[in-house]
Design a protein that fits this description.
about 120 residues; alpha/beta; Rossmann fold; four-stranded parallel beta sheet; 4 strands
Amino acid sequence: MINILVTAVGSELAFSIIKAIRTMQTPYRLIGCDINKKVLGKCWCDTFYVVPKARNEDAYIRVIRKIIKEEKVDFLNYMLDKSKDNEHLIHYFENYKQQLQKNNLNSYLKSVNKQ
């Protein structure tokens, strides 16, 4: 089972991403988060979290990392506005996402090869 975290599940883009994930044949568990608790996207998530606004950078990163750790997230799909305010966060999460996916893809491939 692959644990997938999608941020900003209240956005239109997240809806498209969730639809694509739902077509996967590989078993998955979808974890979603958003800054609002009343968003439609949470209905399609197995687990949902309310997170701080990204402009509160330290709190946002702390909460996302906690979710990743507690939910044993394998793949992270984050969405942030590409505003000047979020450049540091985008860079941080892109590096974090690449490392997370590299580690988990290697583990997943090893488990598949053992079967």
